[in-house]
Specification:
Layout lengths: L6 E7 L6 H9 L8 E8 L5 H6 L7 E6 L5 H11 L4 E5 L3 E3 L3 H9 L6 E7 L8 H6 L24 E5 L19 H12 L4 E11 L5 H14 L1 H7 L15 H6 L2 H11 L5 H20 L2
Parallel strand pairs: 1-2, 1-4, 2-3, 6-8
Antiparallel strand pairs: 4-7, 5-8, 6-7
């Protein structure tokens, strides 16, 4: 790699005392030159022992701890890290993820390509963990940027900010995360749309830049989160970006075809069938249905 930019790593942290030590240690063990790396750990008002764990890394010259007095959400936490740094490339990593030693280098290898301004890496089930129904959905080859593979331009729908690198120069053109989005979901999509509109061929997915995702939960819990996203943030995204109704699944909320496909009878049938058949498509239906139900709960008011 001929390009050796300075790097900022922004890690928003909220109540992750079960894994954040491993996350930070994996960043400190990167093979990339440590003199060019700054790590910004943003304590987003944690109420467990996350803050104490973060403080234990304060003696590392690369580590900078930012404390937010109350839980303000991912947009505010990530923006705090962006503003604190000055690296040529900004990495975003969720605090429940653990990366390999070559994580930075692999991202930069892809980011060095002509016209590339952002890279999102793969998410992997932690080694030795038995997958549940949600895991079979989340880590399925059909889901997200995996369906496109290495080096192919991807759309904004697949550009999330949980394992991501982005050239800082992008923020000279595009504004930061929208801090009005404080609850689960949508803050990365909102920013990704604005980035993609300016750099439509500049986003990539990378299998090689994968990391272990230590967030064990069930399908029901995930669907509850997606319901809240559909209720709280999706409606405002559809108002802000009506031209992307299809990509945001807005066409299913109030349409006839939407009610034919997402309704209580079919929902019950899918739910019962899923008990006997652990299928990606059945899980996918339940996730999308949760989002649609959340959005419909707002539209009925």
């Amino acid at each position: 790699m001929s390009w050796s930019p300075t790097v900022d790593i922004v890690v928003p942290c909220y109540n992750v005392d079960h894994i954040v030590e491993q996350c930070v240690n994996s960043l400190l063990e990167q093979s990339y030159s440590e003199n060019t790396i700054n790590i910004y750990l943003v304590n987003d008002g944690s109420t467990d022992t996350t803050g104490e764990i973060l403080d234990s890394f304060a003696h590392h010259k690369q580590v900078h701890i930012i404390l937010l007095e109350s839980n303000s959400g991912l947009s505010t936490a990530r923006n705090a890290g962006i503003k604190a740094g000055s690296g040529e490339v900004i990495f975003f990593l969720d605090s429940d993820m653990v990366v390999k030693q070559n994580w930075i280098t692999v991202h930069l290898n892809t980011l060095e390509g002509t016209g590339v301004i952002g890279v999102v890496g793969d998410l992997l089930l932690p080694e030795g963990q038995t997958p549940n129904a949600l895991d079979h959905y989340l880590y399925n080859p059909r889901r997200g940027g995996r369906r496109f593979g290495e080096g192919v331009p991807i759309g904004f729908s697949y550009f999330l900010f949980n394992n991501t690198s982005l050239k800082r120069s992008v923020f000279d053109v595009v504004e930061l995360f929208d801090e009005n989005i404080t609850s689960y979901g949508g803050e990365d999509t909102e920013l990704a749309i604005r980035i993609w509109e300016t750099y439509p061929d500049g986003l990539r997915f990378s299998f090689s830049a994968g990391c272990e995702h230590h967030h064990h939960r069930g399908l029901t819990d995930f669907c509850n989160s997606m319901y809240n996203y559909g209720k709280s943030n999706l409606p405002s995204l559809l108002v802000q970006f009506p031209q992307y109704e299809k990509e945001l699944a807005g066409q299913w909320i109030k349409s006839i075809k939407g009610y034919l496909l997402f309704n209580p009878v079919l929902r019950w049938f899918i739910y019962k069938t899923h008990h006997f058949c652990n299928c990606y498509w059945l899980s996918r239906y339940q996730v999308i249905d949760a989002v649609i139900r959340g959005a419909r709960s707002v539209s009925r008011r």
